[in-house]
Fold each of these.
Amino acid sequence: MDRVTVSLGERSYRILIGNGLVDRAGDHLAGFTRNGRLLVVSDETVWSTLGARLQTGLGDIEAVPVIVPAGEDSKSWAGLRFVVDSLLSAGVERSDHVVAFGGGMVGDLAGFAAAIVNRGCRFIQVPTTLLAQVDSSVGGKTAINVAAGKNLVGAFHQPSLVLIDPLLLGTLDDRQLRAGYAEIVKYGLIEDRPFFEWLEEQGGAVLAGEPAARTKGITIAVNGKARIVEEDERETSGRRALLNLGHTFGHALEAETGYSDRLLHGEAVALGCVLAFDFSVERDVCAAEDAARVRRHFVASGLPATLSELGLAGIGDRLAAHMVHDKKREGGRTTFILARSIGQAVMDKAIELADVARFLERAR
Ligand code: GLY
């Protein structure tokens, strides 16, 4: 088992990573129970495929399930109200630890419910998708989507523990797995070139589920995120903003495709990273060979790496218009994360959207 600590003073917590951890969940969660029970928020799909496994792993601990429909629609005011009311009906107290058992939607929803119920109780993340294991379960960002946009209502609320069991990914379909893999690659691109080079060699093994390679990939990614969160928990210094590499382009692509199955979040991040590198080359801050290498790796990993393959070429103005709604805008400007090289991402607040639109108009 690997252990990563996120050091945030009194909000510090551990991330445990290991194959089969959920089958021994009781050993790791016993210290977080009250009256021998834990409230578990999950969705219908996860609970029907993996709920029995969690319950068996919990042993004598009673799991009190709060189950929402699968899908992003549950990450809403209505979903939040249902979860909060259910937790209150179940007698939640401030000293309780709510377990978020699912992908990013469940983690964000349960984490936000935990942040506000009784003015805040504790929570534990047990992520069941690769994307949630390497990104959303770590760092304490919790939120719901509202009419004005995604993730616009939420709180920074750090979990008390993150339990990552790569074996849970066995039920995940290949496309979801590859989408989560894009977020792993992102950490190499941001500040860990040797990790990117390792992924060029071992990415296939990570995707194929070779146990040692997959666990190593997850652990290095999680460790990278933990270090960044420690330095900039609330995304105020610019350090945590580096985690948005590929996301400003990616969110525009997701908005254009209606946040639908046409383009999963991780797929948008992959293509978004390619575009961020290509744009960095255009602005003369990055070598063309690095951008080509990034594209090659995403193609080799079965991820989208061109606008044309998604039918999104030649609509630069429309894509740039979506960026006007990016929630990371400051003083009327959109912040971009560009790259000097593989392993050296940089923040740039001085980019004109018109330049981005022209770049996207030409990009294929
Ligand atoms: N997913 C980006 C962050 O946690 O800051």
Amino acid sequence: MNLSDDISVLTGVGPKRAENLKELGIYTIEELLSYYPFRYDDIQEKELNEIQDQEKVTLKGLVVSEPVVSRYGYKKSRMMFRMMQDHAVINVSFFNQPYLKDKIVMSEEIAVYGKWDAKRKSLNGMKILAAQNDGEDFAPIYHVNKKVRQSSLIQLIRTGFEKYGNFIPEFLPETLVEKYRLMPRKEAMFAMHFPNNPEESHQAKRRVVFEEFFLFQLKMQGLKRREKAEKNGLSVQYDVDRLKTFTQKLPFELTDAQKKVTNEICRDLMSPNHMQRLLQGDVGSGKTVVAAIALYATMTAGFQGALMVPTEILAQQHMESLQQLYDPLEVRTALLTGSTKTKERRMILEQLATGEIDIIIGTHALIQEDVRFRRLGLVITDEQHRFGVNQRRILREKGLKPDVLFMTATPIPRTLAITAFGEMDVSIIDEMPAGRIPIETRWIRPPQLDTVLEWMEKELAHGHQAYVICPLIEESEALDVKNATEIFEHMSAFFNPTYQVGLLHGKMKNQEKEEIMQEFKENNLQLLVSTTVIEVGVNVPNATVMLIMDADRFGLAQLHQLRGRVGRGSEASYCILVANPKNEMGVERMKIMTETNNGFVLSEKDLELRGPGEVFGARQSGVPQFAVGDIVTDVNILEVARQEASTIWTKEQWWVLPEYRGIADKIKPNDDEQQFFD
Ligand code: ADP
Ligand code: MG
């Protein structure tokens, strides 16, 4: 018997059930036993007559009526059903959560947490809890779907432990288990599901988080070490004098921070080691020029450079910025995107292969199979979180061993960046070019919108332009477009015919988007209504107003990105947040936006308020995702894990030592990963 046994060896798991479990990512016994709950419900039942009016309680009972949803007003609804506890019938209502209806099943047990209304004998529901908790105080709650229910999953996990519990080996080195007084693996795994008390739960989690971070660090540091050790990386022997002349001719003096990161990058270029560097800098901190210098250096060494960006608009814009900085006789640039015409594309591919193009700028189009380089020496990707790891790897493999630079404006606190991106070096531009007028940020409530529009009219009358951002409605693309269209109509009605209003949204064809952007750039449109498609990169210095609708629906980092679209010229600029936050945290977030223009301060605050899951959600990742560990609240464990991993890597051939067998096994690379044990 082995933990890697297929889940179907358990009694009660037929082909159908196994199929359903796979949808949750559970294939093996080990995956079942480590499918941890995401929270626990603390259920303490009370007698109805013991409960005070307006007291928050959990009530448990049988559902005795079908749920009924009534809708009223805009986005408002109320869902009601009745449940029976002992012999009393209780009315339960939930406001504005109509989707909870599916969780109310006639004749099933249910536990509801809410506020008790003693007069009406009703419960104002806040949360539905698991009812199947066998009388335990802590009921584990799992992410499940319609086909796998909480109760049956719990049952299955128990069966799994009964059969396989004794086959859970410890794999962490004994020294570490002792040093940090970690709960043994077997006990910890069990207690993650069924803790007897909060302390046990805490200890189990501490052990599991350590294990998770430690293995991650061990692996990442292994990768980094191997990359570093490889002397067959490229040494880009750039021409120091030409590079100096180039930087001296720039239209501005580099900030100290830009100089510092440029030096770090150039050192990496010159060295025969392989560069894997993350360049972080707030919006507007001047990352583009740093990229331009690195690409220029690469060219003087006789290599080609590539700059990959996530959208066509951005590619176009980077192309323009680079061309302004370079002397066209000296640097041959080209643009390759999805909409490059076939004939032109063919020519570009040919020139890339022969080396007639020095620097190519483009989108995903750069990583198509038929794109070949003569001597690719440097790959830069902008807004790295938008590209998958694979896409980055493909581009990298087009060169011999090109150096790689990732640029991002997502400001991740330094300590976090260093620890979380175990395999990369980090450079940070922590200073803005001098002479910027700080953007003034105001927060208003929706009823004040018209007053703001009147004020905006005056801004436009000064010859300036403005953005209006509508929130992306994730659940429905159709709703999203509808919403943007409505706002567009409202704006048009207000500003026409004196000013022209344009609309940009995700459903539009690339070419259409491009045209609208161009119109806005040329000031044929004064106002641009848009969903967040403009979030990254666009540069229209004449735009001085950024109006963000439903601002509380955005993350702080995103709001900050959007705000960075203005304040790019020499004129005073404004960011107006329109929001009616529903809770204290929302209010706090709007306030902090008005108080600071510093992306790093904001990101720390955002992490504190919302946690990394929300901040670096799956969608805009780049930051590794952990199953249990939280890189912010568990940052101490992360740091310890990092140190311990690095100590182990200082030992010669540690993976052959008996003590480390277990962990070496655990981090053994897959076939498609490169070997680093040698
Ligand atoms: P980022 O990509 O980091 O958001 P950009 O590279 O687009 O920022 O730079 C924003 C603006 O600042 C550009 O117009 C650029 O020309 C200008 N800029 C960059 N570095 C400096 C500097 N050292 N001094 C003055 N202006 C600068
Ligand atoms: Mg940029």
